[in-house]
Amino acid sequence: MIHELRVYRCVPGRLPALLKRFDTITLKIWERHGIRQAGFWTTIVGESSQDLFYLLEWNSMAEREQKWTAFQSDPEWIAKRAETEKDGAIVANVTNAFLQPTAFSSVK
């Protein structure tokens, strides 16, 4: 199992719109595509209170490529994303990293 850590830095003031989009739209589409989330976090104390961190679980990089590509090209996702951004961009930038657990990690 590998985990993908994704960090979304929001346009100032737009974090509530991003959280609403995940809660009401994105997670339902992910479920249809078999994308598994391992958790979501916002920052209480840290560099920016405009960040959303989340982990996705993948069996392999091949699984990630197949499912993420299908999600990104899903017509419903494309339409809903555009609709939620009609008042302007929500996310300023996205970073991601693929993580492999160590032998002593409690999360495998």
UniProtKB/TrEMBL annotation:
It comes from the Bacteria. Pfam families: NIPSNAP. Residues 4-105 form the NIPSNAP domain. Signal peptide: none annotated. InterPro entries: Dimeric_a/b-barrel, NIPSNAP. Gene3D superfamilies: 3.30.70.100. This is NIPSNAP family protein. It comes from Neoroseomonas terrae.
